[in-house]
Amino acid sequence: MEKLYKLLLVFFVGTLSIACSSDDNADIGGNNDGPIIPQLGYFPQNVGNSWTYDIQSEDFSEQDHLYVSGETTQNGVTYKTFATDNTPTGFYTSLLTTGKLSSDNSKILYSGTINIGEILGGIEGLSFDLTNFVILDNNASLGNLLSSQSGEFYQDLAEYGLNVEYTLASTSSGDLETLTLENGTTHNDIKIVNLSFSLKIDAIFTFMGVQIPYTILSTQEVVSSTQYYAYNIGMIFAETQIQYQLEEIPNVGIEIPVPENYQYNLKEILTNFSLENS
Description:
Distance between the termini: 43 Å
Number of domains: 1
Number of helices: 3
């Protein structure tokens, strides 16, 4: 179960905006009084910027300190990388620390590897790559599809094989004028993005040289993650739901190491942030 939870965290979704020059903000306590802050966008990405989140689930309460750890340039494209002080426990924080971000006008793009095998209990080799997957578009309206990637691949596991079909999609969920978090802080000018991940999995058994497919996971949305981004701050709240139900697996003398069902809810709530000067 621990491996399963770790995958889900590694899996997918945060949403960001274009980074500009920064001043700085400090403890969350509603709207801070002080000097006028430059227009930073929905995710200021200067190296050194940081955000602290309370991570809450049914089973535990932790804290993640996320920060922009570096900047690299490849083929003329600038990417920002992220890190946490300790192993991240949040879905959003885990997502950012296992990939890299780039900007293209109003869009924020994610590149990284999604490990499906961790969702399924730690099966190795079940992964796919994302390149320039749009996770936020500042100009998108409610319901706009930002990005979508579908694919299919096969993994041979000796006694049987797994054929995996997947679809990953990001969608604009509109705007809010204000949002008050569970800790009582209120933020203005909010953009909302939903990340969804659907899977279909067939187990492929071989009998007398003939491959026989059997659906063990019918097409289901296994991850739905919604993130809220406040202008001049970044991601202030994320809620991620992870769930699936396997089909009844016939007794063929082979154990498939996948939990029969899983349901989990995770919240990430901003408590503190600091923005560096450009």
